[in-house]
């Protein structure tokens, strides 16, 4: 029986493998330098999440399911949300405003860096979960579903 699932072209696989570390590195750079340059947590998070799309294009949906856990990404996404809220509330607890830069005031390191990192991870995990859910609909989970089944007839005795 001819399989309807084709192996990916070697050029596409090699290009995906080449651009995967570049996309992750550039995305992390945009997140880490987002408070001093254009870009930030949202843009960098989307760039890092694009790694899932590169794995899908180069290796297929089964490799995405094997490499990334959507449950782990979804549960760790809440850690980034909690980190952002805690850092923002620390300003109120010190008698200042919400989301105010108070921890490292006057120095090069600011609380906006920590909040930007939290936004970057939150966006990366959220977009990654969405991509995994959308890409899982493109390939059927059961390859044997389309194969005709042969039922044996049992003769009565």
Report on this model:
The protein has helices at residues 10-32, 41-59, 61-67, 70-93, 111-136. With 157 residues, it is mostly helical. It has one domain (10-139). The radius of gyration is 23 Å and the shape is elongated. Mean pLDDT is 80; it is low at 144-149.
Provide a compact summary of the structure.
The chain has helices at 10-32, 41-59, 61-67, 70-93, 111-136. The chain is mostly helical and 157 residues long.
Give the beta-strand count.
Answer: 0
Radius of gyration: 23 Å
Number of discrete helical segments: 5
The largest pleated sheet is described as: none
Pattern of helices and strands: HHHHH
Using the alpha-carbon principal axes, give the shape: elongated
Q: Uncertain regions: pLDDT < 50 for 5+ in a row?
A: 144-149
Residue share in β-strands? under 5%
Terminal Cα separation, in Å? 35 Å
Number of domains: 1
Q: Report the average pLDDT across residues.
A: 80
Name a few traits of the molecule.
157 residues, 5 helices, elongated
Architecture blueprint of SSEs:
Blueprint: H1 10-32, H2 41-59, H3 61-67, H4 70-93, H5 111-136
């Amino acid at each position: 029986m001819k399989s309807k699932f084709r192996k990916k072209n070697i050029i596409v696989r090699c290009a995906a493998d080449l651009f995967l570390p570049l996309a992750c590195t550039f995305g992390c750079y945009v997140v880490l330098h987002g408070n001093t340059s254009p870009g930030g947590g949202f843009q960098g998070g989307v760039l890092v999440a694009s790694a899932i799309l590169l794995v899908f294009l180069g290796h297929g949906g089964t490799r995405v399911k094997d490499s990334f856990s959507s449950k782990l990404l979804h549960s760790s996404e809440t850690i980034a949300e909690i980190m952002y809220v805690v850092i923002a509330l620390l300003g109120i607890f010190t008698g200042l405003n919400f989301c105010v830069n108070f921890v490292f005031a006057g120095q090069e390191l600011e609380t906006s860096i920590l909040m930007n990192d939290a936004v970057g991870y939150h966006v990366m995990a959220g977009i990654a979960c969405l991509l995994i859910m959308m890409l899982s609909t493109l390939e059927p989970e059961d390859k044997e579903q389309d194969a005709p089944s042969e039922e044996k007839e049992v003769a009565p005795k």
